[in-house]
Design goal:
Layout lengths: L1 E7 L10 E9 L2 E6 L4 E3 L12 E10 L2 E8 L5
Antiparallel strand pairs: 1-4, 1-6, 2-3, 2-5, 3-4, 5-6
Length: about 80
């Protein structure tokens, strides 16, 4: 299982237990991921860290002074 964190700008868009699609986007030499219907966005990942799964399960939604963060669990091996 692989866990990734996504930054969400506002709360109430998703709940723990939701299974959401993930879209991969490419920038010059890295990749980032968009969760659901643009609910949240990941950090940039290198080619070796690319996500294989195309959907994940929300396991935590957390509010911090820096904003809302969503932890999503994907069914794949961590390398």
């Amino acid at each position: 299982m692989r866990e990734m964190e996504f930054k969400m700008e506002r709360t109430g868009l998703l709940e723990v237990g939701d299974v959401l699609p993930v879209v991969e986007n490419k920038v010059s030499n890295s990749y980032y991921y968009t969760l659901g219907h643009a609910y949240a966005m990941s950090a940039n990942y290198s080619t070796l860290e690319r996500l294989v799964s195309r959907e994940g399960k929300v396991v935590e939604v957390e509010e911090t002074p820096k904003g809302f963060f969503v932890k999503v669990l994907f069914d794949e091996d961590v390398k």
